[in-house]
Amino acid sequence: MSDIDSVKALVHKVMRRDFDLVPTASGQGNRVHLEVWTHKATKLPIGLEMGHSTLVNFWLVRSDLPRDLPEGVTRTEKEPTGDGWTDAENDGANHNLKSYPQFARRPLTRLGILSLDDASRVLAAITRGDVTGLVDAAGRKGAVRGAFILKINGAVHAPGGICRPKSGTDWEGGTLRMPWSGERASSKSDRAPGDKIAPGDRLYIWAHEDKAYGHGLGLTATAIADRVETGEQELAIGLRDVTLLPRPFGFRILGSRAQDFPMLQRMDEDRGLRAWQMNAAETDAIDRLIQEFGSEFAAKKAQAEAAYLSPLARAVMQDLVEIEQAEEDRKTAIVKARPGQQKFRDMAMRHHGGRCVFTGVRVAAALEAAHVIPHTGNPAFEVAENSLVLRRDIHALFDASLIAIDPRSGRLVLSPSLEGSIYAKNLSGREVDHKLAREALQYQFQRFMAAQAQEGCAEAAG
To answer: Any coiled-coil ranges, and where (predicted)?
Structure first.
């Protein structure tokens, strides 16, 4: 185990022994690696940021600081302002702290802890107790033997059936049940059989994004295997040192970047629930991806970028999993009547002059209102600029990604599978007045192109 893993193990042990966890005040503490605890006897509050790869941050009210701090501990003073805190570099503090009365409007100090020895000395001073035994226990855990990505159905296999944990404590100390049968305990990126998970292994927990498999968020947390029991069809894995990613991410967020990583390519192709064993290079690559897509910096960057997006673009970014499920419903024709459907149709009919956008037909009984970006329940998608009015048979072709509008020309493009049909004869290359928002126009064309690429791959494989 690395020194910082030992630090985190020690902090968790001291917190569980001497402190009580304060419920998340803002509902967002997990996104910024913030946990707040209060000492059982003295009620001293401490805020913890455990998600960094090189240090652990302690947040303390300045009057509660230990008198003598180890030289290796970094110290940053934060002064209260009207809406948070600031320091000499005009940098703020973890914004969730202001939601806790223990910290609000009080001078704070952030301590950066990098070593096990410094952590033990600071914790001993704060608790006014002996942590030596816990330090020894943290150090005895041994080196991390291997690393695995566990792709699970979070609603079935995660501790407590919690697919989307709000805090690391939701999974800490719990049991993850990894499906397993036969001789193959895990797989490697080259599809060779891998080893069985053992105590001390580092785990990267990937909650399957599909609604049928728990509707998780993708790569959600890292942890260490504390104990492993083998059953006939599962491995029961005890978790410790659980750290949630500030910004969980899956294949939708990764996009084409996933193709740069053979392990992720295999996972995407397999789509099943499986343990994937990684070598050192693959583990380093996943850690870099976490820094790029799942770190606190990535979360803040995504939040800042979202502030400049249109409401429709922001909704697409935030509802990726829901959109993916809605697309699956389109493919299987699972479309239910829903509140607001008539309102959407009336709005679309007014927006497009009561005619089929692709054919010009004005027979209302033959026309349907189509969502371009599918309905998920997000009101941002219930706008005229995300609608088309289409003849019923054309609507079916559109939902099947057999026809689309080329954003560059505004003309219709059709799937090669429609070649020779009456649709190709009458519609291919026709210019249309679509009146779509840019985001909706791009979405439907990208969806069409992805479907054609998938169809081409299927034909090649056949």
So the answer is: none
